[in-house]
Amino acid sequence: MPKKRQYWLMKSEPDAFSWQDLVDSPGKTTFWDGVRNYQARNTMRDLMKKGDGVFFYHSRTKPPGVVGVAQVVKEGAPDPTQFDAKAKYFDAKASPENPRWYGVEIKAVGILPSYVSLEDIKGNCDLDEMPLVQKGQRLSVQPVGEKEWQTVLKMGGWKGRKI
DNA sequence: GCCAACGTTGGC
DNA sequence: GCCAACGTTGGC
């Protein structure tokens, strides 16, 4: 039974970790750590699969929007920062035997030739169903439908390989 | 920098 | 197990 390709959107504040930081990472790959929201955790731990497409979204920028395309290269694994007492994301209630927080590894595939801002997304009625534009939506890791994935790629002038 | 929306914590 | 207080997110 072939698995259906899934798509996601991951938010990051560029001051903390930008698209360029991802591109500059060894192998253009990074472990997505520091997520401390249970729903986002469940998504990364249980749902995101190797090869899934990821929109890399810059939040708290002027303007916020989708900057590039990435892919999941390693599925959910315990986030090491939860065990590090000195780390910002330390969680005293987590232990290696009983991890609480998970992350995935993603790899940059390519930048979108044209940035797709939040305003652009809100302005396209084909994208009304995206969690991103729902009121009060704050999830840093969220699903993207097949239709929405293709629409945003088109808006961004994506000429890269199909994911 | 403001603040609405939302999630989590902890006293009871 | 309720819910007020608190902390965080993220657009504006």
CATH class: Alpha Beta
Number of helices: 4
The poorly predicted ranges are none
User: What fraction, in percent, of the residue positions are helical?
Assistant: 10-25%
Mean of residue pLDDT?
94
Structural class comes to alpha+beta
Kindly report the spatial arrangement of strands forming the biggest sheet: 2-5-4-3-1-6
Radius of gyration: 16 Å
Write the CATH homologous superfamily: ph1033 like domains
If you had to describe this structure to a student in words, what would you say it looks like?
The protein is 19% helix and 30% strand. The protein has a 6-stranded mixed sheet with strand order 2-5-4-3-1-6. The protein contains 4 helices and 6 strands; from the N terminus they run βαβαβββαβα. The chain has helices spanning 19-24, 38-47, 118-122, 146-155; strands spanning 7-12, 29-31, 53-58, 65-78, 102-117, 141-144. With 163 residues, it is of the alpha+beta class. The radius of gyration is 16 Å and the shape is globular. The two termini are 19 Å apart. It binds a DNA duplex (12 and 12 nucleotides) through loops.
